[in-house]
Amino acid sequence: MTTDTQTPGSGAVSEEERWKYLDHIRRTPGPFTDPDATAEEYLAQFEKFKVFGAGGLGCEILKNLALSKFKDIHVIDMDTIDVSNLNRQFLFRKSDVGKYKAEVAAKFVENRVKGVSITAHNKRIQDFDESFYKKFQLVVCGLDSIEARRWINAMLVSIAEESEDDPDGIKPLIDGGTEGFKGQARVILPSMTSCIECQLDMHAPRAAVPLCTIASIPRQPEHCVEWAHIIAWEEEKPFPKLDKDDPEHITWLYEKALARSQEFGISGVTYSLTQGTVKNIIPAIASTNAIIAGACCNEAFKIATNSAPCLGFENNYMMYSGNDSIYTYTFKHEKKDDCPVCGRQARPLEIDPRTTLQELLDSLSIRPEAQLKRPSIRAEGKTLYMQFPPQLEEQTRPHLAMSISELGLEDKQHVVVTDPAFPLEFNYYLKFKKASQE
Ligand SMILES: [Zn+2]
Fold first, then answer.
1. Does residue 55 come out as left (phi exceeding 0), alpha (psi in the -120 to 50 range) or beta?
2. How far is the CA of 157 from the centre of ligand 1 (A)?
3. What are phi and psi of 89, to 5 degrees?
4. Residue 274 · residue 225 · CB < 8 Å
5. How far is the C-alpha of 58 from the C-alpha of 92, rounded, in Å?
6. Helices (H), 136-217
7. C-beta of residue 219 within 8 angstroms of C-beta of residue 266
8. Which of 61, 89, 330, 376 has the greatest number of beta carbons closer than 10 A?
């Protein structure tokens, strides 16, 4: 423990000493390294690596990458530091509250690890275009939104497809994510292996509690909170619009939920449970973040050095669960031919022809393989519903109440769905359900 606690740069640990073991791995050829390269070439190649990381696992990833001797790192995060981050995002101090996460984290790690250059971007990943992402060899993501993951995935697949035979066009995407005690680390070789969109059903939206349970027979404290949130609020409208960040509003919901829970003899309704349920907060656990970020950065190190086989062509997905003791499982997620990002085929969209267009659009937000919040839809030669521009929205709005058959759509007909959050088109063909299937 003694050497670990000494401050680097104080003279206690020389730079040579600090990197001794790491450099040994990087200099020594192994069974997986290029037999023609010299030790110097290895080191030089590694130092050219540009890596970019972003998001909620950011502190861990940034620290790990710098200590793995990646030299040129870019970090993107648009968030500012909140006091609630301080318990686990260890690069931030109280005096940093309100400042940009990317900037503070970059400065901290640069000060601590000599020789690393970290460029901070206080932006969204969507604010950059292809020419920016083309500069990197490796992308490490610890994003907290599925939308952002899908976006960067589509970007890297399109770069890979465009550069066809150029191996530099394939920028491995290492993605980590956690949810409480659970997490995953996966490696995507864009256009070659199963991508995030292929794996989207692994992130199925949480099953909602049926409204009847909430309305009539609550069994859990969360059901009481949902009752206050969905039913009591609508009936009483204590404030014009629910603001989930306003303590007064949450207090109102909490008191309503508490009264209901007492009526049904359910315990466990607290202010923070109310806030968590309404805002759908899953607690972030520092150690899960450390495990997942560690797994991701080890894969980054192996990809850069070829020192050992990494996740990729064969097994490409590692899931970790600490919910019930510890369990991990690594498997190969297959590429899907009908993936809207990396596949070539249209997907079936199973539907009863009596369904209205509105119901069809609503279903796109909960279908695990779609998860589109603001879809527009068109068929060949026919604009069915467009969210934008406003004139077109108004023109197509009457279609929403019409059924699929009233709109003249046929079984096996192709439809194209778009959503402003994604720079791509989702190709589907309608697959009519027979009435007897119900
Ligand atoms: Zn795919």
1. left
2. 8
3. -90, 90
4. yes
5. 11
6. 146-162, 211-215
7. yes
8. 61
d(CA 398, CA 379): 16
The CA 192 to ligand 1 mean position distance, Å, reads 9
List, for residues 229-267, the tens digit of each pLDDT value. Answer: 989 998 999 999 898 889 999 999 999 999 999 999 999
Give the model confidence (pLDDT) of 132-149 as tens digits: 999 999 999 988 788 889
The model's pLDDT over 365-419, given as tens digits with 9 standing for 90+, comes to 888 888 888 999 999 888 999 998 999 999 999 999 999 999 999 999 999 999 9
Stated pTM of the model: 0.78
Asked whether 119 and 97 are in contact (CB, 8 A), the reply is no
For residue 24, report the distance from its CA to the centre of ligand 1, in Å.
37
Q: What is the per-residue pLDDT for 45?
A: 66
115 — alpha (psi -120 to 50), left (phi > 0) or beta? Answer: left
Alpha helices in 68-183 (DSSP H): 101-112, 130-133, 146-162
Q: What is the pLDDT of residues 149-195, one digit of tens each?
A: 999 999 999 999 888 778 889 999 999 999 889 999 999 999 999 99
- Output phi, psi for 182, to 5 deg: -105, 155
298 CA to centre of ligand 1 in angstroms: 24
Whole-number pLDDT of residue 9 = 47
Residue 339 a catalytic site member? no
CA of 86 to the centre of ligand 1 (A): 36
Q: Does residue 218 register a pLDDT over 50?
A: yes
